[in-house]
Structure formats: C-alpha cells, structure tokens
Amino acid sequence: MKRRPGLAVALLALAALYAIWFGRGAEWFAVAVFAAPPLSLAAAAWFGRRNAGFWAGVLALMWFSHGVMVAWTRPAERGLALLAVALATVIVAVASLPGLRARSGKRNRNEPKEMP
After folding, report:
1. Which of 2, 16, 43, 113 has a CA-to-CA distance to 26 between 20 and 30 Å?
2. From CA 36, how far away is CA 58, in angstroms rounded?
C-alpha cells in the first residue's frame, strides 16, 4: 500500500492539538487517551498500513462529535474544540480520497455499462 503523508500530517496536527489542549491543564491521562490514537494512526499511515485510512476515518467521527459537544457546552474551550472539528473533517476527507478517486475514475469506452 502507498504511504499517506497527507493523512499522517493531519493526524499529527490533531495529536498536537490534543496534547496542547489537555496538557496545559496537566490532564495527562486525557492527553494519552486523546493523543495516542492519532499518533499511532499517523505512524501507520506514514508506513503505508492498509487499514490506517479506515480507522482514521472511523475515529475521526468520534473526534468530530467530541469537538462539537465541547464547543456547544464549554465556551472557554470553543476555539480548540472547533479546531478539532476542522481537523477531524480534514481527516475524513483525506482518508476518503483514494476510494473517491477509484469510484470516479474514468472507464474504458468499450467497457459495457453496468445496469442498476
């Protein structure tokens, strides 16, 4: 499988965001819980692991939901939460690109069209 540096960079940015967000309050368990999965997925994406994009997309749904919930309920943390929402959206988009490209790829004109 091909390396996915764009996905790795987005995951590293999210891990850094969570480390800054929870690290400034000395909530080290929260740093481990929230920063470890994007870090491990970033390494997997960098080294071309096949399932890295899938799991990044699945976990990005959780990160997105967490960011929306925090932005809605804690006004003091709204900026960081919305940044997490934006990064989770980028992760879903970047993780989905190979499948979208394969699905919308050009077909041979001589190839018969599939009937629904």
Report:
1. 43
2. 15
